[in-house]
């Protein structure tokens, strides 16, 4: 059973191409397992993806508690496998935030669709400290780890990466979806190389491996597989860097590389959890 699947994020295709046939065919040919579509849904592309046997999930935003039920029901009716959500704008009081979280959790249960809230700037979960506090209050929260927002926005290396890593462990234990993007302390989206020795690449490998390990230890995850979706966004929204009018790198090739790094991290996580299980078996034996 394939317990880690790589999906291409639909928004990442902005500014890419042209493709020889269609982007859906290119995505399948590149060995992606599915597509994360964005709101509003591209119905013809969704149908083509399904026809080619690709998985489909979605992403959305909620600003009020009532939004959660409407969006969850629409996603379930469309047959999406799961949703990632931007929740709130980050200016909510704790009580307002709690009402949003309660609505998300209730909607996920009511419509039987996994919902993963994002660790994203300009949302309720934009900073580490508040997110950890909400996890204590709402342990059923499950996350899409979009960690470049924290790594750059909260400068995770300032004050010690390892101490920050330990602090957010309660969040890492609840990540069941990952957005693939690597940032450094100054830029949220940077190009990486195969075998890149940069410390920030190592840090993201650690973050992703920890999340995969938590998924593998989960006795009853909402989904039997975890999704890794490269989300490398265009310079038009100030993600991809440009130099003399050209993008820093080929985002398609970078997406393939990030997917490969994720597969390596998942293999490492499997090895680590197997060793952990063997140790427990020996101890009990």
Describe the structure concisely for a colleague.
Helices cover 45% and strands 15% of the residues.
Count of helical stretches: 10
Structural class: alpha/beta
Task: Flag low-confidence runs.
Answer: none
Strand content: 15-25%
Specify the biggest β-sheet: 8 strands, parallel, barrel
E-strand count: 10
* Multimeric state: single chain
pLDDT averaged over residues? 96
The separation of the N and C termini measures 28 Å
Helix content: 40-55%
The H-and-E topology, N to C, reads as EHEHEHEHEHEHHHEHEEEH
Radius of gyration: 18 Å
Write the layout of secondary structure elements.
Blueprint: E1 4-9, H1 23-29, E2 34-36, H2 43-51, E3 55-62, H3 65-78, E4 83-87, H4 94-110, E5 115-118, H5 128-137, E6 143-145, H6 148-153, H7 161-167, H8 169-172, E7 175-180, H9 199-217, E8 226-230, E9 242-243, E10 246-247, H10 251-284
Parallel strand pairs: 1-2, 1-8, 2-3, 3-4, 4-5, 5-6, 6-7, 7-8
Antiparallel strand pairs: 9-10
What does this structure look like?
With 285 residues, the protein is an alpha/beta fold. It contains 10 helices and 10 strands. It has an 8-stranded parallel β-barrel, surrounded by 6 helices. The model has no long low-confidence stretch (mean pLDDT 96).
Question: Keyphrases for this structure?
Answer:
single chain, about 280 residues, alpha/beta, 8-stranded parallel beta barrel, 10 helices, about 15% strand
